[in-house]
Fold this protein.
Amino acid sequence: MLKFSFFSILFVLLSSITNAQAKKIKLGFPPVEELEMKTYAKDTAASAVIMYEYGNAGIKYRDDDVRLYVDYTVRIKILKKEGLDRGDIVIPLRKSSRRKEEVSKIKAVSTTLKANGVHEKRWLKESDIYREEYNDDYILLKFAVPNVTVGSVIEYQYTLKSPFLYNFFPWELQEDIPKVYSEYQTSIPGNYKYNIKLVGNQKLDKNETGLKRECFVVGRGKADCSTATYIMRDIPAFIEEDYMLSAKNFKSKISYELEEVHFFDGKKDKYTKTWKSTDYELRSGENLGAQSRKENYFKKQLPEKLFSIEDPLEKAKNIYYYLQEKMTWNEKRNLFGKKDVKDVFEKNTGSVTEMNLVLLNSLKAGGLNANLMLLSTRDNGLPTKLYPVLSEFNYLVVKLDIGDTSYLLDITDKKLPFGLLPYKCLNSYGRVFNFKKGSYWFDIIADKYQTKSITQMNVKVDENGLITGDMREVNTGYFGLNKRQSFSKTNEDAYIEDMENSLSQISDFTINEFKIVNKNNYEKPLTETINFQIDNDNITSENIFFYPFMFNRFKTNPFQLKERTYPVNFGYSRVYNYRIAIEIPESMTYTEIPQNKTIKFQNETASLKINALQKGNILNIILKLNLDQPIYNAEDYNGLKTLFKELVAIQNKVPIVIQKKVK
């Protein structure tokens, strides 16, 4: 008889054992205090709160098959109308061409306390459960808990079984509503080795492991099981805010990655590979590997003049812009799967992966040192560096090395200048695959172009309060890219009309002349010039109120949380610079002007400065915001929040007040 009693499971978990777990609940009998509950004291803004959540998962041998099983139960209190959608349940079920996940034992009930004290219960009918074919990989099982109203307590449970042992059920401890109690119990046979890690900054109240003898039996083979109980209490809601990477990186959860399986006949399957074996797998594969070795074909297909350029950087740029203009992205990524770069080149359209493989081969055909690089986009989460997990990547770009300088390239966006990646790709790092020397991690740093917005404005006020002026706005780097993308979605007349409409909220604003320079020269600063006039609505019999920061202003503070536990990730460093000169007639005077002020971080990585200088009837104002880092730690959040609060106040609530002189 073969027997396994080893437990080589990697835990990256903090262990603190506290009170025993709560008892399992019986559906349809929520506590009276939960039915009477009006708000959740620890988060009065919560639209709903998970009062209790329990899961029990394990690997079992049943009906001549080894499968994953999980029993799941949850009870939720609905506090506000915004929480009513918590009763609409969607369970994604993974599938392949031969196998699929299945759900059974579905029960759901809502309980509502009526005015007469009656506990009204409504149970889910089996006929109200349905399945939807979502795509090639998933079926969606859907049902709605009946009769859900504000004040209801909803409960549901089900059992899910899965043939996909690679994906042991992760446990999502933190969601966008708070949880009072969450418990997860697992049982894993000793011949299944998983890497297990706790993601997020919330601490477990209980992390207890144990041993269950001979719990897994297949024929004559037996294995002991490693058991675990994880409990977390009083889990705060995870609130997303601007300037962040995917919430997947920060929400507290327990995740699993199958490393290897030892079979009772002595064989072993290794699932978590080394980078060396992963490199070989990609290099020898018929898709990414084979399709990255087609430079001879592209040497014949591209115009010969592209390859005759002697300067390597100029040659690379000419190849880049030629392909960027020639080809059109089909809005698909298609990282893994069948590809044919020759067919894509001939049809002039393809996925991200296919188009950038065309670029890769073309650069190599020009004798340049180029390699493919896999990354994960900002909304997809950061790939782990502990071991290769190719499924965590979802995007392919090209890394080009010329001398000591590296360039990251993507031709899918026709407005992207050479060396600038789409904003969605600014996700810390990627994996470069040099199929001759081996793969390596490479940091994604948006430093090829400085991102600045410089606004210069000259304004005159006449005796009647009519304001005329010229504005010149110069945008570089990602600000220039954003502007060009906006222009591509509209025409000049519509753009001007939108600007007039938005600025007319301040005053009766009219654009007399508009000009744009370097609209299609992507490596040059994008420059807009405007001649305008304002028939000032902000005028009284004595005063003229003029808000000088009309253009490119922050209308609201993007940072509103009391506390932010994850970094502020802008993607790239940035500078906003405003220079405004205001001239008034000799018959008028300034009665209110902005106060000089400087706010800066102690390490001087962020600063806000406003300076107003009056010389006779001319007022010069300089406002500058510097964010010198693309990423700021959570400890810097309050400083950024204060800085932007001050900026918004300056730009929206601090007018220049002009008054006629008393004769």
In short: The longest strand covers residues 48-62. The chain has eleven helices and 37 strands.
